[in-house]
Amino acid sequence: MAVIAGNWKMHMGAAQTRAFFAELDLDESASKNELLIFPPVSSLGVAAACPDRDSRIQLGVQNIHWQDGGAFTGETSAAMAAEAGASHVLIGHSERRHVFGETNEEVALKIAACCSHGLVPVVCVGETLSQRQEGRVDEVILGQLDAALQALEGNDGRFLLAYEPVWAIGTGETATPDDAANAHSTLRTRLEAALGLAAAVRRPILYGGSVKPSNAADLLGAANVDGVLVGGASLDPRSFAEIAAAGGR
Ligand code: PEP
C-alpha cells in the first residue's frame, strides 16, 4: 500500500474539479492505496460534495493559517478547512517556503493548528539546488524535520512527511530512486530516534518532484519511499489513475 497524493496548486476551478472526478477511473489495485487530493481551497467544497468523487479519495488543503480566526485577510483556518471537508493539510510546501517566505517557526505553528483540529499534517521538506551542490542535503532536511517534530511532540496523531527536493518540483527533473532512498533513509533514521521504531514506521514518507506515470513505479519501489506527492501529473485524471495503479502493485 502506498500514499498517492495530488497537489493541484493554483489549478482546477470548480468546473475542472467536477470534470476530473467524473473522468477519474481508478483500477482495482489503486484501492490498496491511500489516495489524497489537495485542490485549491475554492474548489474544496465542490470536491467534497462531488457525487462522482470516489469515496476512497480523501481531500486536503494546501495551506492554513495557525490562528483559529481573526483579521487575516486571504487566509483559511484549520477549523474552516476541516468544516469544508479537508482531512489533511500540506504544510511547508517548498512554494510556500520559497515563494512566500514561510519559516520553520510558521511551519511549526501550522502543524500545531492541524493537531488541535484533528487534521493530518503532510509536512514537506527538501533542499534547493545550491544547498544540494554544497553537500547540505541532510543538514537542510533534518533541520526542517526537527522543527516539525518539536511541534508534534506529545501528539500521537498521524502525520505524513514528504521529501520534495526543490530542484525537482515542476522542473521535469526527478531525483533518482537512489537519491530518494538516501534522503528517505536519513529522515526515517531521525524519525526512529525521535519517536521509536514502531511509531516511525507508521509515519509514511512520500517522495515529490516531477513524479509521472513513467517514473512512479521505480520511485515507489525505492527503499523507505511510502508514497508520492504529485503536482503537474495529478491534474490529468488518466495520469493520476496510472500513478495510483503503480502504487498498488
Ligand atoms: C508538488 O507540487 O508538490 C510537486 C511535486 O510538483 P511536480 O510533481 O509538478 O514537480
Could you please describe the fold and organization of this structure?
With 249 residues, the protein is an alpha/beta fold. The protein has one domain (3-246): Aldolase class I (TIM Barrel, Alpha-Beta Barrel). It has eleven helices and eight strands. Helix 5 runs parallel beside helix 7 (137-152), helix 7 (137-152) packs parallel to helix 8 (177-195) and helix 10 packs parallel to helix 11. The mean pLDDT is 94. Phosphoenolpyruvate is lined by residues 7, 9, 164, 169-170, 208-211, 229-233.
Write a brief structural summary.
44% of the residues lie in helices and 15% in strands. The protein has 249 residues and is α/β, with parallel strands linked by helices.
List keywords for this structure.
alpha/beta, TIM Barrel, binds phosphoenolpyruvate, 249 residues
